[in-house]
Amino acid sequence: METGKLVQWLVKPGDRVKFGDVVAVVETHKGAIDVEIFLDGVIDNLAPLDQEVPVGTVLATVRQSGETAAPAVAAVAPAAVAAPVPVITEVSAEPARSAANVGRIRISPAARQRAQQLGVELAALAGRGTGEGGAVCLRDVEAAVSRHPAEATAATGSDVHRGFDPAQMRQAIAAAMGRSKREIPHYYLTDSIDFGAAAQWLAAWNAERPPEQRLLPAVLLLKACARALLAYPQFNGFYEDGGFRAAAGIHPGWAVSLRGGGLVAPAIHDADRQTLPQLMTAMRDLVQRARAGSLRSSELADPSITLTNLGERGAESVLGVIYPPQVAIIGFGRVQPRPWVVDGQLAVRPLLNVSLAADHRVTDGHLGGQLLAGIGDALQHPDTL
């Protein structure tokens, strides 16, 4: 993205905010993005709504303890392609808690998006949250609709993505991929992985659990990649200012196709530290919110590598294009039975095609081959994932 439109503030001047709070909604070509705060303090000097501004524009200031009052925000930071629309901090003195913060509604991004689709006023949800800490969640919105059905309007397909423009998204994708092919010296590697052990383990796991707790093969692929990237961090980061910068954590961007056309690849944070059930929950939530146009700024700002699974779409294999400034993309095709030699004997095994496109300025084929081997080895021992 190069520009965005600030369409909603979820806080008022003088409200106390903390790291991770969603404070605003920015409209982009791929839908509405929830902007998170990245430090603790008191927010002030909120930028006006409904203005198209470049990426890097200052949206607000955050005042921290012991600092003097900050001036009103007027400056605009330089625009940057593929960077988040941030809340820039300028620290100043911390005043007493504002009365405006009293009665502020805590609501999840998905619930807020659903309320907007159904025409439910946020004020009607105050005090009705059943989520953690009294936060309003999706079931609370649906309950409000059932109580007052006449006040809700049916959502249409065009309502799903606020600001979503398929033609402009396609132009943005073309620009990013064109830049990638011009500037990044790609090299490609592929491998075939025996998915038999993983498939058997997965079937046994799912047989003992209800449908909502079952795992999909994709979550094994995600965790196997995260495990391999721990051993080969040269693929997990960014090429910037003429050199490689390793990412602070393993935050794979999972490619999601959007119903209106196009795709987005938001991050699943710290994939190496999460259990398989946690990753399954995170993946389902991410896909749902991506298609509802309700992603968070942190999910779009820091994917450290992209993973794309086109096997579920029927493709036998995929050779991806690196998303700059990332330095690699891993692709998975479909699992299909093929002849395979096992212990010197010919057998039919479920094989999975995995591919790597990587930046030759950072790594070479020798290391890339080791990364693919690491993914394959992890999938041979799914019980350790």
Automatic annotation (TrEMBL):
It comes from the Bacteria. InterPro entries: 2-oxoA_DH_lipoyl-BS, 2-oxoacid_DH_actylTfrase, 2-oxoacid_DH_E2_comp, Biotin_lipoyl, CAT-like_dom_sf, E3-bd_dom_sf, PSBD, Single_hybrid_motif. It is an enzyme of class 2 (transferase). Gene3D superfamilies: 2.40.50.100, Chloramphenicol acetyltransferase-like domain (3.30.559.10), E3-binding domain (4.10.320.10). Its EC number is 2.3.1.-. Residues 1-63 form the Lipoyl-binding domain. Its cofactor is (R)-lipoate. Belongs to the 2-oxoacid dehydrogenase family. Forms a 24-polypeptide structural core with octahedral symmetry. PANTHER family: DIHYDROLIPOAMIDE ACETYLTRANSFERASE COMPONENT OF PYRUVATE DEHYDROGENASE COMPLEX, LIPOAMIDE ACYLTRANSFERASE COMPONENT OF BRANCHED-CHAIN ALPHA-KETO ACID DEHYDROGENASE COMPLEX, MITOCHONDRIAL. This is Dihydrolipoamide acetyltransferase component of pyruvate dehydrogenase complex. It comes from Vogesella alkaliphila.
